[in-house]
Amino acid sequence: MSDENAAFTPTQIRQAGPAQLAITWQDGHESVYAVRDLRLACGCAICVDEWTGEEHLDPACVPEDVRPLKIESVGRYALQIQWSDGHDTGIYPFRRLRALDAG
Asked: Between 1 and 52, whose confidence is greater?
């Protein structure tokens, strides 16, 4: 596996606290995400216009205590998260998750 692919391959996904999700990547880096920030970063067609990229999700409509109820792998490239607010159509590609940690 190339070094580039190691940066986008998770080796562990775990709850890092009541409102945090941690991903350890094959290159050794650990990303820790606030779960509400992940919910707000959903890129599905319900949350973001497919053609314009305009965001439709109103952050005021996402509860402060939103949390993942179920996390599943989508092939070898993404996660799908079922959220406590009923949303479950978003797919979070590993490359996008790693980019969200770049800040």
From this structure: 52
What local confidence, expressed as pLDDT, does residue 1 receive? 53
> What domains are there in the chain, each with its CATH number?
3-100 (3.30.2020.30)
Q: What is the chain's Cα-based Rg?
A: 14
Q: Residue 10: helix, strand or coil by DSSP?
A: strand
What is the end-to-end Cα distance of the chain in Å, rounded? 26
**Rounded to whole angstroms, how far apart are CA atoms 9 and 27?**
8
Provide the 8-state DSSP code for 56. -
Query: What is this structure's pTM?
Result: 0.88
Quickly state the pLDDT bin for 18 (edges 50, 70, 90): confident
- What gap in Å lies between CA 52 and CA 64, rounded to an integer? 27
